[in-house]
Amino acid sequence: MCGIFGIVFAERPRRNLGEILRRALERLEYRGYDSAGIAVVDRGLLIVRKDAGKVAEVAARYNFDSIQGTAGVAHTRWATHGKPDQSNAHPHIDCGGIIAVVHNGIIENYAELKEELLAKGHVFRSETDTEVIAHLVEEYKRQGVDTFTAFKKAISKIRGAYAVALIDAENPKVIYFARNLSPLIIGVGDGFNIIASDIPTVLDYTRRVIAVRDGEYGYITPTQVYIEADGVSQDVSSRIEEIPWSAEMATKGGYPHFMLKEIYEQPESLATTVAGLEWPLLETAANTLLSARNVYIVGAGSSLHAGLAFLQLLLRIKVTPVPIVASEYATYEQLFDKGDVAVAISQSGETIDTIKAVRTMREKGVRVLAVTNVVGSTISRESDAVIYTRAGPEIGVAATKTFTTQVATLSALYVAALKTLGYDTAPMEREIKALPDLVRKTLENTAGAAKDLAKRLKNKPSAYYLGRGAALPVAMEGALKLKEVAYIHAEAYPAGESKHGPIALVEEGFPVLFVFSDPNTREKTLSNVAEMKARGAYTIGTVPMKSDIAKRLDYAIEVPELGELTAPILHIVPLQLLAYFTAVEKGYDPDKPRNLAKTVTVE
């Protein structure tokens, strides 16, 4: 996830344009902070300043505030293609140094486009997917069309998730834009207009906003907003909205807490994850797993739960991984040997327990495949191969979007293994691509129920989260969320195991939450529901939409159902919401849970 911004004036503004762009980048830094840059058009010249580092560092190094101009774009980066350094920082330019582009998202077919452009003599300066856009526009302009026509042709060639802003020094009072899946809004000003990744970034200048829709593209000038879709001009004036947010709310995108904001960002994060899946890399990794002597899955907290969901999938193809709690790796040390493969999962790539496990495994000859969200992190550097989850920055301490993107990434690795074994994986690939929309629907359909249920649970001292088979890791993650932010003792168990001790605590009104994400275990789980109800438990469940299971429970939250790959993600979403709303009902700040840190860097 990256942040983009662009603004165009009729004349030089009273405040230097570089300062305006720097302030916008500071607003957007929550979306990415490994590098930053700006491109400004002034008197027909394109000026680009960019580098690795936080916004304040880069802005001071290149004295952004002194740069004047009439139109400019800016970018703060969360690396997805290429390490964080100056060459990969945005904006990216064409061969002639006339066109500059900033981009948030993933261009799936950039490699083939780059190959075509290289064959035509274009010179690339970065490892990014974004740079192809600048060269595509340049290429079409060489064929004699105007910039907007060239931009539209370029956009029609790219596939994936993107929000793009582009300036051309030969058309200095225009910023071109396009959106697919990645967020983009227009701020409508008086004598200027703005394009940006989010609303808070434009509120210093205007409260009049237009949300750009998927598939739309167009341009802004100081006095005009033009939007087009499928070659048809769109009505703009009727779509302008007045934003009433306070400044404090604006920093969180209108949400009261980062945790809730990040729960609702999951459709976007998953879209980026899905668009960024590198199937050749996944198939190579799958081959390594399938030929391994032993497979280990190592992680901590939510990352371990994502690994356990992956383990459930691998069992179906007769791969029997050893799950390892990262801090307990020494217990398994005697097993580690050449020919083994470990999947090390860490959202930050800096979890010390996982790092120590990775180092020990590699010393013993184990090949390590890292699954992480942070490019250039310790685990990514010290592993034999790495798959990035591309969730974007997560500020809330409780993992939400980093967990679901881990599960999605590992599900894709499982699909790659199936493909390697000769299975027809087309239906599963379609299922993974449907994830962003399904999660969006789940959020819409379950938030009200989760909020209502939070009122009923807020005074309960304990709860059980039960599931069988592939539902168990989801139950474990749901229980962890409730403990982390609502401080309610929540214990996850295999539903069948609950008879062997835990049921002794159940009395009238004791909340027991069942996860019905695994279709293969639902009948047996219903038997456990009956056992708990017989002892007075208040039974709750996340259940498939329009199933009869809801009738067997005291309280049911219905979620969409598509297949086994998407089920863990769709069932965890209402449990994330339940934990969040329960914390708020109890008066706690879910962004700052006591005793917890976002990244655990001590043993």
UniProtKB/TrEMBL annotation:
Keywords assigned: Aminotransferase, Cytoplasm, Glutamine amidotransferase, Repeat, Transferase
Reactions the enzyme catalyzes: D-fructose 6-phosphate + L-glutamine = D-glucosamine 6-phosphate + L-glutamate
UniProt domain Glutamine amidotransferase type-2: residue ranges: 2-223
Record localization: Cytoplasm
Main subcellular location: cytoplasm
PROSITE patterns hit by this protein: GATASE_TYPE_2, SIS
Assigned EC number: 2.6.1.16
Superkingdom: Archaea
Annotated InterPro entries: GATase_2_dom, GFAT, GFAT_N, GlmS/AgaS_SIS, GlmS/FrlB_SIS, Ntn_hydrolases_N, SIS_dom, SIS_dom_sf
GO annotation terms (biological process): carbohydrate metabolic process; fructose 6-phosphate metabolic process; protein N-linked glycosylation; UDP-N-acetylglucosamine metabolic process
Domain SIS: residue ranges: 285-426, 453-593
One Gene Ontology molecular-function label: carbohydrate derivative binding
Keyword ATP-binding assigned: no
Active site residues per record: 2, 598
UniProt keyword Repeat present: yes
One Gene Ontology cellular component: cytoplasm
Record PANTHER family: GLUCOSAMINE--FRUCTOSE-6-PHOSPHATE AMINOTRANSFERASE, ISOMERIZING (PTHR10937), GLUTAMINE--FRUCTOSE-6-PHOSPHATE TRANSAMINASE (ISOMERIZING) (PTHR10937:SF0)
Quaternary data: Homodimer.
Function according to Swiss-Prot or TrEMBL: Catalyzes the first step in hexosamine metabolism, converting fructose-6P into glucosamine-6P using glutamine as a nitrogen source.
Name of the protein: Glutamine--fructose-6-phosphate aminotransferase [isomerizing]
Native source species: Pyrobaculum islandicum (strain DSM 4184 / JCM 9189 / GEO3)
Gene from which this protein is expressed: glmS
